[in-house]
Specification:
The chain is an alpha+beta fold. The protein is built from six helices and twelve strands. The protein is globular and about 65 Å long.
Length: 207
């Protein structure tokens, strides 16, 4: 019985990490992400983050969700983008604008927390090639106009000002990061060990 409980729990956690809620996906179209105000915590890894126009953008790739905060860490709203099976979503920034690239290499231009432009991977291929040459480094895309930098530590985001003072502005429970895709191999190994122990106990422990 214990072995069955372990397997069911592992399957549920794995599904919750990798899948975007259908209620969000049904409201999402290509080029038209769904805007919603509810602040929801998600199992899984915070995959990317960047700043632009006094907004901090936090991407949960496995959920196809982008959460928007002010630079003090106050939650504003979220976007849900169409999800795809393969590929990699990420945030990129030029010297003037921020872009979200989805798993099909389409780009969404973001400004002040709003989606203002959509570039299709095929229809705008030439423009995208030029755009990709202007992207700044990860360290620059995580530095705001006042020179404050933002860093992911564990499951949370910390802000460092120009004097070196550090403040945790977005806090997430560590358990949400532990069950993320990054640590999925570890959690899989632990579950298999527990499963083996429970099976051995059921076979020999009762004798």
């Amino acid at each position: 019985v214990f072995a069955i409980v372990i397997m069911i729990t592992y399957v549920i956690i794995g599904f919750s990490i990798q899948h975007t809620p259908q209620s969000l996906q049904k409201r999402t179209q290509l080029g038209k992400p769904y805007l919603f105000e509810k602040n929801t915590e998600y199992f899984g890894m915070l995959s990317d983050y960047a700043t632009c126009d006094n907004t901090l953008y936090v991407l949960y790739e496995a959920k196809s969700v982008l959460k928007c905060y002010d630079l003090s860490g106050n939650y504003l709203y979220s976007y849900c983008f169409l999800t795809y099976q393969n590929g990699r979503a990420e945030l990129q920034r030029t010297s003037k604008a921020l872009y979200l690239k989805d798993r099909q290499n389409n780009y969404y231009q973001l400004s002040n927390g709003k989606v203002i432009r959509f570039l299709h991977s095929k229809q705008n291929a030439d423009e995208i090639r030029l755009l990709e040459k202007s992207f700044v480094s990860d360290s620059l895309k995580r530095t705001d106009m006042q020179g404050n930098t933002y860093m992911l530590r564990g499951a949370s985001i910390w802000k460092t000002d120009s004097y070196g003072n550090q403040t945790q502005i977005i806090h997430r429970p560590w358990i949400l990061q532990f069950v993320s895709l990054k640590y999925r191999a570890i959690s899989h190994f632990v579950c298999m060990i527990l499963l083996a122990i429970s099976l051995l106990y059921e076979k020999f422990g009762r004798n």
